[in-house]
Every structure is written in structure tokens, then in C-alpha cells.
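Known limitations

Files may contain more than one protein. Parsers should not assume a single record per file. Below, a two-record file is shown to illustrate correct handling: read the sequence, read the C-alpha cell line, then continue until end of file.
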Amino acid sequence: MEPFNGLNMGLGNLFRMSSAQTRSISAENVTGAKGKGGMATQGTGANAGRDLGQGWKISPSVDIKPGEVFTAAAIDGPGAIQHIWLTCFPDSWRHMILRFYWDDEQEPSVEVPVGDFFCNGWCERSNVNSLPVAVNPAGGMNSYWVMPFRKKARVTVENRMDKPVVLYYQFTYTLTEVPEDAAYLHAQWRRSNPLPYKQDHVLLDGVKGSGQYVGTYIAWQVNNTGWWGEGEIKFYMDGDRDFPTICGTGTEDYFGGAWNFEHPQGQYGAFSTAYLGFHQQIRPDGLYRSQQRFGMYRWHVMDPIRFEQDLKVTIQALGWRSGGRYLPLQDDIASVAFWYQSEPHTPHPPLPDNDGLEVI
């Protein structure tokens, strides 16, 4: 059997002993230090616990002020983040920005709004039942992406709201040696609103280095009537220019569905599985909610898309018009691309301002 260091305790290795050390950071133990949990005497629960005192849920959460960049985790390695749980109110999900910095990076490897990172880009709760991401009632957000680091890991949350946000959070990690071939998790958010006519939505571009693409989440608003998912996803890698190496056959096909996601007839069929999901459908109500909105994910856990030099990923928005012809759509598409790669990485494009982030 291959050497095992406790970096990823899959079911196949769960019985094996390891010298890895498990630690966890939360508002009850902000450093993750051994034997230092539950010691707070001040915090968001101090009033509720005033009769009980230290050790009785005195600091279960933090208040992040408007404009504040809160350091949720600062860890000395080597090791890996194994599980993240957090929750905050849905109205803040697009304006709370998660950033992950590995080792001595000045530019984040992950820069994504909280809701979109957990497949909830519409600021409305939707459960997700997948292997790397799970969202449970009522807004408990979980990530199981393995995030190795060699020197340091730093996670920040920026509050772009005009009011304080209460954040509950827990980062569980392991301190252990990291294999030489371990890459770093990256994630990038992009939005086309509206998508220019006859142009593809770019999920990812400018990636340099070697690694593997491991996942896509899209929050998709349709601005036309009719079916909207004929578009192809395309992966341009390692020198591809005009034409990609990998080309899909349709939007619902890429996300694991078929025939317009229609089941039963006349309805969209929601599903959320280990690697594929069309988990959220927001329907018009005949008044102010005028557009259809969808959330969908595709995890390349069993089929990572490996690249050696560079990577670009695009998807088309394509419907139907008269005469059985395709109609390029001008939809509102926000996406998160997840991938692992060696460092250094190309800096992400700047996030838009609050108006550019807003769900409208």
C-alpha cells in the first residue's frame, strides 16, 4: 500500500494510524492551539452565558464590521484544511468575500463571494448534497475540498455590506507533511451581466502552470423565454487557440442531465448528487420576480481535467429562435471555477464593485 500521512482520510484509509495532528479554528479557539478552546470570557454569547461563565458558549461567532477584512484563520504548516463550516444570513452572501492565501502569497489563490463558493449564488438558501460541498438546512455551508499548504494558510472574509455581519465559522485542519506532488486549491469568480451577444461566458482564463481543473458552479439567470441550455462548454489547454481540446455537447449535458432537465414533462427536475447537481430553480412569480434563475454544479473529482502549461474555460449561452435556428442569449451568468495548480499563479482579475456583485 502507498505511504499514508493522514492528509486525506478517505474511507479507504480511515482505519490507518497516522502521526498527523487534528486542529480546529473557530470563534471559540481563534488560533486552533491545543487545549485552548472554549476559554473566552467575552464574545457574542457573553450576555446569554452571563449566569454560566467561561466554557459556556461565550464566543460562538464574530461580528464583522462594514468594510472590515476579518482574518478567520492563520495557520502555520505544513498541513491541509480538510473541512470548513460557516453560516451567515443570505442577504450578505454575495458581498462577503472569501480569500485564501497559501504560504507567503500576496495575491489570493481563492477569491470568491461566500454564497457562490458554496453553490448558493442567488442569496437564497438552496440545499446541496455533493461530495466536496454540502449545504444543509438552514444555510449551513460545508466544504470538503482538501487544501494543502506547506508554510502557511491564511483565510480572510471581507464584509462589503453597509452593516455588520454575524459570522459563525469553523476550520478543521491537519498538521502533517505534504507530499511533493500536492498542488494548491484555487477558485475564481466571474460574471457576465448581461453576456454580450454572440460571446461566450469565460469561466477561467490566463491560468499558467500545471494542474487539474476540478469543478464548476454557475448561477444562471435566463433573460429570454424558451430553452436556454444548448451552449457548449470548452476547455482550451496547453497551447489551444481557435479550437479547444475538450468540447461539450450542451449545458445540461455537462451538468449531468439531459433533454432540458425536463422531468416530469413541463417541469424542471431538480437533483443534487455527489458530483453533479441542478439543485436550484427560482421561478417567476408574475410580479417582481420576472426571470428564471438556476444553480448548478459539476465536480471533476473522478475525471479531473489535467493541463501542463495553460488553461482557458468558456461556456456558451444558447437557445432557439424561429426556423429551428440557435439563438445566442444575453443572460446574467455568474460562475466559480475550481482548480488545483502549482504556484506561483496568475493573479485573478479584480472583483467588480458592489453594484457589479449584487444580485438584482
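...continuing to the second record:
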Amino acid sequence: MGNVTLNNGLEMPLIGYGVFRVPEGEDLAEAVKTAIARGYRSIDTAQIYRNEESVGQGIRAAIAEGLVTREELFVTSKVWNDKLSYEETLTAYNRSLEKLGLEYLDLYLIHWPGIDKNHVEAYKALEKIYQDGRVRSIGVSNFHVHHLENLLKETTVIPVINQIEFHPHLTQEEVRSYCKEHGIQVEAWSPLMNGALLEEALIQALAAKYSKTPAQIVLRYDIQHGIVTIPKTMTPSRMTENLSVYDFALTDEEMAKLDALNDGLRCGPDPEKFDFK
């Protein structure tokens, strides 16, 4: 698997395992352990997903069975920063560690910028956690350019990641350009548009050409753009398929055709309007 080097020198896998909308329970714990057994080294969860306990259970089981060491994993969670104060954000981090059963996270993100700029105080708490050596890196999620500009004016640690909705129908070129200029790695959530992209004619045609699945075409598109991507699946065979995207490459013309699908279509909330309600 390929890695990217973040702006603090930490390496992160280009493809991770996402668990959005997967409920707490034994099925998820087993899926996380299976994903690790299949080769995933990056696991992405969040406070609001309400499944950190099961994710942690799966991680700890994989470690206990000798499938991986903790140092080989890259574990991400996110703070749900609805009007969170500085102190509440520090408490939220501790709570996530307790639920996961881990001593540290590799990446901790602010989940949404909010519409009242409360993200600055929350991010200052992340800076404190980072400066104290309790998390290996910090970043943001769903930030547009003006959110990032405001954050960089008020804080000192440049985010290593901006995790955004990204796929051929929402390429977010302005955000990506700003992030590249400032050394912030872009990460894609919902890379398959909750499965909707799998029916796209162009993607199906490329899948046929390369003898790949439509999902593999989209994930290859992401990594050729240098974007970290975190597909979700509970099916072991698809876990393996989603990692098997390093034995082919899309042409520049094919990448351009996929880019041309961009029409601003979202499958998630708009960060400019999302107010946590």
C-alpha cells in the first residue's frame, strides 16, 4: 500500500477503512479486525459515529492476535464541535481514547467548521493535545478556504489533513488548491457517494476496460490525485478489492473525463450551511 507524508513528517496510508454509519456492535468489531487482517493500516472513526468502542475492540483484538502492532496502525477520530469550549474539547479527546481503549490517536480532527467560527477554540485545544505529545497529528474536516484562512490566522499548528467530501461529482478544486499551497493533505470521505457512483456509465466503462470494479476505478482516481481515501464496506471480499488498486493506472485523458463529471453534487451536508442541528 502507498503512503503519503504529512506536513509534520508522519506517514499515512493512502487508503483507509471508514466506519461511518456502521452501528456499535460485534459485527463492526469483527469487521475492523478483518480489515486489518486484509491489509488496512488506517482506521477512521468519529465521536458522532457512536461506534468508537467497537472500533477499539476490533483494533485491540487484531493487536492481541498478532495481526499488527499498535505502531503499525494509523487511527483517526474526530471531535463533534457543536459549541464546544476549549476545555470540553480536551475532555472529548480523553473520552474518545477511553472508548477506543487506546493511549493515543494518530490523527484527531475537528469534524465541521460550524457557522459561528467556534472551531478556533476547539482547534486550540487540539494544538494543546498535540504539543503535549498526546496525539501524533491534528487536522480538520469539511473546511472551505475561508474557514482555513481564519484558522491559520488564529492558530500556530498547520492542520496535516482537511477531510472533505470528494468524488468525481464534487472535485472541490479551490479547496484542494489552497490545501496544496499550504501543505495540507486532502482526504476524501464518501469517495463512492454512498454507492451512487458505481452506476455511473463512464466509471462502469473504465471498470470493464481494466477488468476492475467500479469502486476500484474511483479509488484509483482518488490516489492518482494524491488524495487519501477511506471507503467503507463490511464485506471481506470488497475490503480486499478496495486495496487492489495499485496494479493499473488511469490515463491522463481518463482522469480528465472523470474530473469533467464535476457538477457540485453533494451526498452530505454543505459546510456553509451545516449548523449541527
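Parsers that stop after the first record will miss the second one. For reference, the second record is described as follows. DSSP finds ten helices and ten strands in the chain.
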